[in-house]
Design brief:
α3 runs parallel beside α5 and α12 runs parallel beside α13. A hairpin with a 2-residue loop joins β10 and β11. It is built from 16 helices and 26 strands. 54% of the residues are buried. The chain has 495 residues and is α/β, with parallel strands linked by helices.
Length: 495
């Protein structure tokens, strides 16, 4: 989507760069991907871990780029903007070209290990019920109302992020709820974004393949509350890291958690929904919401805090909480009226698995059975921790979850290193593992299918094969219903 247009000379002033060639050439879009270059485009050559964008300048120019942004003069044949660090200026350049969209629309940025998708969907739902026009940027959906847009990442790269904000602004959005990943904060993907609200959900071990250690991972999350222009922060202080962030935040803070500004009391939850007293600075408001589990109450409160910070009334927020819809692949009940409850959830960390099993334990009449695995080419250190968390279930079925370039059995061995005792079945084939779990269940049991959530593919080697946990579970349940063959809790799979 072309922007409003800026002269290269003005962009140079904005980012402290130097121009070579015609400084008055007009730029209407910014991209870091030479495949998306075209007339009016400023191509930014970024040095990455695998590729150097300077090697693709020729292709960008051939595709019609008006100018290039580089870290040294290259003699490309088009106007050049030379800066010290091209990655650092991507966001500011794109924001300038697209008319500084975050100054015109309220951006809610949500960060944390778990809960980002749920909180942003809840913000979207609550504000829409209050006659606002929200946009959503995240893992599952990027959209404004019925307009589905393309992002490609949880948090898009800086040039794409600003373009998306502008597109949503032009589609009439008056607020945008965006998931802000630790990768995005570390790599500067949201630089030049003004946040009306920044929210924090929780922190537990994840992504150490990228960050290296927990201190670096923690520091990346903290950047949102230290280095950005934020009007107000909403922070879950029921999480230990939340207390730390609330103490160092450079903006006013609404604290969410027991005894804080906003918290929940008298929680009653079932598969039919949850009711609780939302207490806002001492005043109680009864909420009945179609959500499952105490951890989703915590997510709902963070979302409620964000909406209150956007000047929705308490009555609007309470009404909106009562209208929340299911979030794809987030503790999503997929078994309908089947006597065994089957839930698909995106839990892919030790803490996420622990929370899912804890909620299922509260809801189950019988046993809790968990299907889980660990992804390949990702943080290996969390694998034994995931195994340790999964044995909290009565029966755990350990299987493959996006092995990517790794040997699935090697990943399973890493997970097994954290498992002591019995109660674990290993089945490498994910479809067979899901079937084993469902056929092992008796009426009243809860089967958790963890790790992939909304995903519709299984990453094996360089291929992505069709695989949707919800679809697979549905097919198995349908076969069981047709054959009236329910395992009755024996733990053995029918032939």
């Amino acid at each position: 989507m072309p922007g409003r247009g800026k002269k290269l000379a003005d962009l140079a002033v904005a980012v402290g760069g130097v121009t070579h060639g015609d400084p008055d050439v007009t730029v209407t879009d910014v991209t870091h991907d030479s495949r998306h270059a075209g007339e009016g485009t400023l191509y930014v050559a970024v040095r990455g871990s695998q590729f150097d964008g300077h090697d693709f300048i020729t292709g960008a120019v051939a595709a019609g780029s008006t100018a290039v942004c580089v870290d040294h003069f290259t003699g490309s044949g088009v106007s050049e903007l030379v800066v010290i660090d091209t990655r650092e200026v991507m966001g500011p350049l794109s924001a300038a070209v697209h008319g500084d969209p975050s100054a015109a629309v309220a951006v809610v940025g949500v960060t944390g290990t778990n809960g980002k998708t749920t909180v942003t969907h809840y913000v979207e739902s609550i504000t829409a019920s209050a006659s606002r026009t929200p946009g959503l940027i995240g893992t599952v959906h990027t959209r404004v109302g019925e307009h589905e847009l393309t992002s490609g990442r949880t948090t898009p790269e800086a040039t794409d992020f600003q373009r998306l904000l502008a597109e949503m602004r032009d589609l009439g959005a008056d607020l945008i709820a965006a998931e802000i990943s630790s990768h995005a904060l570390e790599l500067g993907r949201v630089v030049a974004t003004k946040f009306a609200v920044a929210a924090f959900t929780n922190l537990s071990q994840d992504h150490l393949d990228f960050h290296g250690d927990m201190d670096s991972y923690r520091a990346a999350k903290e950047r949102l509350f230290r280095d950005y222009e934020v009007r107000l922060a909403v922070i879950n202080v029921n999480d230990r890291e939340g207390e730390r962030i609330a103490a160092m935040a450079r903006m006013p803070v609404m604290r969410v958690g027991p005894g804080a500004d906003l918290w929940a009391e008298n929680v009653s939850t079932s598969f039919d929904g949850t009711s609780f007293d939302m207490t806002l600075r001492g005043n109680r408001h009864r909420v009945a919401a179609p959500l499952i589990g105490a951890f989703n109450v915590e997510n709902a409160l963070v979302a409620a805090g964000c909406c209150l910070a956007l000047d929705l009334s308490v009555d609007e927020v309470v009404a909106g909480l009562g209208l929340l819809g299911p979030v794809p692949g987030r503790f999503e009940l997929v078994s309908g009226s089947f006597p065994v409850r089957v839930v698909v959830d995106y839990a892919h960390t030790a803490e996420g698995i622990h929370q899912a099993i804890s909620v299922a334990r509260d809801l189950a009449i019988g046993r809790v059975i968990a299907v889980f695995g660990a992804g390949g080419d990702r943080d290996r250190g969390k694998r034994p921790l995931m195994g340790r968390a999964a044995i909290e279930a009565d029966l755990s079925v350990l299987t493959s979850d996006n092995p990517r370039s790794e040997d699935p059995e090697a990943i399973i061995r890493d997970v097994m290193a954290g498992i002591e005792g019995s109660g674990v079945v290993v089945e490498v084939d994910r479809r067979r593992a899901i079937e084993h779990a469902i056929r092992a269940a008796a009426p009243g049991d809860v089967v958790l299918i963890l790790g992939k959530g909304h995903e519709t593919g299984q990453e094996i080697g360089e291929r992505v094969l069709p695989f949707d946990d919800k679809v697979v579970a549905g097919e198995i349940l349908e076969r069981i219903v047709r054959s009236s063959d329910l395992g009755g809790g024996s733990g053995s799979m029918s032939p």
